[in-house]
Amino acid sequence: MLTTRAIGSEGSVRQTQLEAGQGREYRSAMPKPSPFKWFKTSPEIIGLAVMLYVRFPLSLRNVEDLLHERGVDVSHETVRFWWHRFGPMFASEIRKRRIEGMRSSRWRWHLDGMFVKINGETHYLWRAVDQEGEVLESFVTKTRDKKAALKFLKKAMRKHGRPEEIVTDKLRSYGAALKALGSEGRQETGRWKNNRAENSHLPFRRRERAMLRFRRMRSLQKFAAIHASVSNHFKLERSLSSRNLFKQNRAAALTEWRGLCAV
């Protein structure tokens, strides 16, 4: 009976498919609900709290005190909940906008890593930085062998494409991973060549000390990704521009950040 119905009601099937297509178009045309809909606090205050906590080496209670000075009475646990809830959303939107306009990041990459302890156990945080010092990718692993390096490089290249030059230190895992990808001819090593990547670790180290370390790999990976996006957004290179130009760029970055909170 089911087969007869399918063959004899071709017009009904087509009509059902048409209605389903119209339903999908209707759903896609509907405005997305605001992520701040059920929160009593305004999006501007939530965005300010997240920016203060991620961008600066402040504790949750420091952010609570700063907001209290501005007449906002919230607890440090509320700040913790806000950055866990909205931090990934802000970081994702920043990455989406910057990746579209960062074609220059394919010129040269600087790859480096840093040791991070989680509950007394040493882990490795891989980081890729472009020639302008912007952090492109962060990836946490338990080891620093070829398998981990290859996974990190594949993830970075999938998002940003293949660079023309890759500057690394003399860790053999880089050479083995690049050889597996067919990019061993693009690798460069040398003394002081990778200072740009090593200097990019400093803001994260300061932030790590303020947070009193991490307890899980998942927390480290999450914060490293959010911190990289927020730092890139507010990276203004004070020493490379005049005072007036720096003030304009700073105001533009803050305006764009407030626009993220209005999504």
Explain what this protein looks like in three dimensions.
Keywords: DNA recombination, DNA-binding, Transposition. It comes from Roseivivax lentus. InterPro entries: DDE_dom, IS_Transposase, RNaseH-like_sf, RNaseH_sf, Transpos_IS6. GO terms for molecular function: DNA binding. Involved in the transposition of the insertion sequence. With 263 residues, the protein is of the alpha/beta class. It folds into two domains: 97 residues, no CATH class; 109 residues, Ribonuclease H-like superfamily/Ribonuclease H (Nucleotidyltransferase, domain 5). 57% of the residues lie in helices and 13% in strands. The protein has eleven helices and five strands, in the order αααααβββαβαβαααα. A five-stranded mixed sheet has the order 3-2-1-4-5, with helices on both faces. The chain is globular and about 55 Å long. The chain starts with a helix and ends with a helix. The N terminus is likely disordered.
Task: Offer a concise description of the structure.
The protein has 263 residues and is an alpha/beta fold. It contains 11 helices and 5 strands, in the order αααααβββαβαβαααα. Strand 4, helix 7 and strand 5 (187-189) form a beta-alpha-beta unit.
Uncertain runs: 1-29
**Strand order, sheet with most strands:** 3-2-1-4-5
User: Which architecture of the largest domain does the CATH hierarchy give at level 2?
Assistant: 2-Layer Sandwich
Largest sheet: 5 strands, mixed
Helix content, binned percent: 55-70%
- Total number of helices: 11
CATH class of the largest domain: Alpha Beta
Strand element count? 5
Assembly type? single chain
DSSP strand content = 5-15%
Ends apart, CA distance between termini: 51 Å
Number of discrete domains: 2
CATH superfamily of the largest domain: Ribonuclease H-like superfamily/Ribonuclease H
User: What is the name of the CATH topology of the largest domain?
Assistant: Nucleotidyltransferase, domain 5
Q: What is the alpha-carbon Rg in Å? A: 23 Å
3D shape: globular
GO molecular function: DNA binding
Domain DDE: 107-235
Protein name: Putative transposase
GO biological process, one term: transposition
